[in-house]
Fold these 3 entries.
Entry 1:
Amino acid sequence: MSGWLRVVDIGAKRTLFETLVPESVWRRHDPNPRGGTRGTRGVSVHGNRLVIAGAERLYVFDESWQLVGEHTHRLMADIHDVLADERGIWVASTGIDALLLYGWDGELLQSRPLREDERLMEELGHPGRWLPPLDPGLDYRDPRHRTGVFDALHVNGLGRAGNGSLLVSFGRVVTREEDEGRLGFSALAQLDGNGFSILHRQPGVSVPNHNVAEAGDLLLFDDSNRHCLVALDRGSGAERTVSIPGDPPFLRGLAQIEPDVWLVGCQAPLALYAVDVRRGKRIATFPLGGVEHEAVYGICPLPESFADPGQLSGSDPYAFWKRASLPAGVTPIPITSRGGPQARGRA
């Protein structure tokens, strides 16, 4: 078992649909007992297309939940987040410290190996300087090419700033080889035409922090170490926090559903929490049930144009992922309604 995809009606507090996610084809070679190549790795919507990521694969669905695209590439190494836009799909390739942009047809449009960005590395203290450079001849989807700890920035969150620039979460930045996999600091960055700029750092991180989003003057992220949603005022630097309960909570997943209200994911109990950042409090809980050790990973509000997927019958647990259909007139290029998608109560 790798992970689950769930469609939740947050108004009715019930799960409309759930299905197992296909295992990575590299799972048998993965030595990591936690995470690694397991699970669903991010979800993002643009126009009439929904992108769901596995460890090394992108699945693209239309509004009727037909699979209209399935893409993989040798640089998709331990994906941790995706962000869909008009150009294509941004991918956080965490296993090799890289940002990738793929067109809607699956073509690699842009590759940014982060450890080769000299200005960024200098600003962050040269994390991973002991690691080998990327080898253009290797298929990094195979975890055997990433033995030990191969990432030093743990890029694990993507978002969009109000000015159109890309927001990036570096969940745990490690600058000393002896601290690999156990200690570092987290950072939030912005990428525009002038390169990266660091917006926030948090020291003393033992597990990665997650996600990044912007709402007006606020910069938000999941603090998986202090178990709280953090909203930073970019003008004053003031910090607002709202704690999330759990044993462990291990926060992941962040999505805005109202002007001041955000959904945050929790591991145990498996649930979504609605947090009002203006009032500084949790205002609703959405239990998800789930199985042992399951954790929320990504959250994405669905536009009203998306149909209810409908629970499939039959003995094949992966039937949902095989509903591939490319009839005449269907294109992997998303159609965006004026003003963009509007969330109306499903996630």
Note: Confidence is low (pLDDT under 50) at residues 327-332, 338-345.
Entry 2:
Amino acid sequence: MENMNENNNPLHERKNKNLNDSIILFERLTWEQIDSLDRKKTLFFLPISPLEEHGPHLPVGTDLLTAKETSIAAIQTLKTHYPDHSFVLLPDIPIGFASFNKDFPGTVSMSSRTVQQVVYSYGCMLAQNGFSHLLICSYHMALGHLKGIYKAMRRLRRTYGLIVCEPWSPVFYSDIINEQEPKVDFDTSTEVHGGFRETSLMIYTHPELVDEKYKQLPLVYNQKIMTASAVFNTFKKLGFTKGYIGTPSKADVRYGKWFFNLTVNTYIEAAEKMIENKTLPDLPRKMKRQMMLLFWL
């Protein structure tokens, strides 16, 4: 395992600089500064993920931190590719549907309708003021959460013709990760929540936030999590009393770096397709059908 700490991790170099020097932060702008942005050459990034437990070793902000920091990394690259465009980072929003682990302290679960309304409200604000591009960056992949995002995107496209995309779920719910990930000596299909992948990611991006106990956490997995009945239960009721599913002890900083960069590149490619008016990534049809079966959300 390579030595990766705050002194040689480029993420910490970025965080130690004045972020305002390199990224346009929406909340720091006046309305006149926003109004001065080129309507056709400005792309907005919206990080959104809930605060939720990620086992006894990871912070509740794991998904939110990742959504924001991968957005920042993507923007920094896009600025060099498209110097005539503006890339604006909207405030990261700590909301999402996370009912399956709501019985743990730290999980704040909102309804799918709330997620829809928040995303739609941001899109309305942009569209009503003449802007045309919105990239939604969520690292939380619960279908109830995505249902709110996708319903909002459909309304925004239908009502305003907004060019809007959420690009990570099409990757997450495809074979891309399994086909491209670095080779490991165990079955990664058991990695569901707070396990090998997310722990690897966090020891790359925020080693100071990862509790060392991850090194002793064994594999926790049960097929029940993959059954239809899991939708009506919580992690604790299914027996996942520590709040993670997978193998945190297998975490590897090199894998975390790869996983982080995969996400960043996914955002970059989606943004480039927006700018160049190409077909945008979309959730596989099978997953959309499953999402719509959650009719009560």
Note: The chain has one domain: 10-282.
Entry 3:
Amino acid sequence: MTNNPTSSRPAKQPIAIEALSLSHSGWSVIPLKPKSKEPLIPWRELQRRRLTEREIIEIFERHPDANVGVITGKVSQLLVLDADSPSVVKRLGSPLTPIVETARGRHYYFQLPDARIRSITHIADGLDLRAEGGYVVTPPSLHPTGKRYEWVIPPKGLDPLGPEPAPPPAWLLELISKRRAHSRPVREIIYGVHEGERNVSATALAGKLLGCLPTEDWWVAWELLKSWNAQNKPPLPERELRQVFDSIARRELQKRTLVENEQHRFFKNLVQFIQKNFSQRELARALNVNQSTVSRRLKSLPYLVSASVLKQKSAMVREFCLQSDARSVGSAAPKK
């Protein structure tokens, strides 16, 4: 690089000023070809170290029409969700965090919870993940279609009132843990994990425990998760652990309710079909039992599949969550 005297002061192009601001925020900046997502320079090294201010100024002085991006993963401590369908993210919920409007959707910037999370294509319908080994295009770059990338919610490094990247929501950690489950079984995390792995591991373990226990025994899952967390180095704050647990519990309950509703409809239709097409005498003969047994069983079937049973189970889980929240708040209160 040349010792141009102008290199000692910030370049005047808006894109260069933006690149410097992103770099000052602690993010690894990557210059991209004009109106393109393609890197302008070899970028493998930029996954390990950030460009200096002088390097950024000189690159954008030589290429004033270049686009700019940010390397995701460990070097920037960033995880970015690329959503072609922002409505999906809105429905599932997202904390206050920097957001970019792209040509086809939005980018959601989150803290990197685990340095070993790598970029994942199609982590769910319309959702891609950019982490270790990836990068994203940032404003004010131009998309090949001519649309300019724009901040919907700029980060604190660009706007004093803007937010820092938030921790990823529990549903996103659950998606990540499911994709990683094939390469890292639960037996490898059961004796505790280190700081960068706690959220993802807690999500995976909570999903396993809640998925194999009846709802009335979910308090056991919570106690086991707390015991596991005590082995972590350091443990997650209990309030944060509780948020992960409750989020997975709500999703598991929703799945079970859908299944139970399907079962309810099936058995209800089955009972109606039997009662409409067969007499109790015919059923007794076919099943080789006496008629009084058939009558007793038919009377009990509607109760077994009644909606009131489902409501009772849901109320039981809600009561458990409220009691656990109260215990968590009580344990977090300062002792007098």
Note: The longest strand covers residues 78-83.
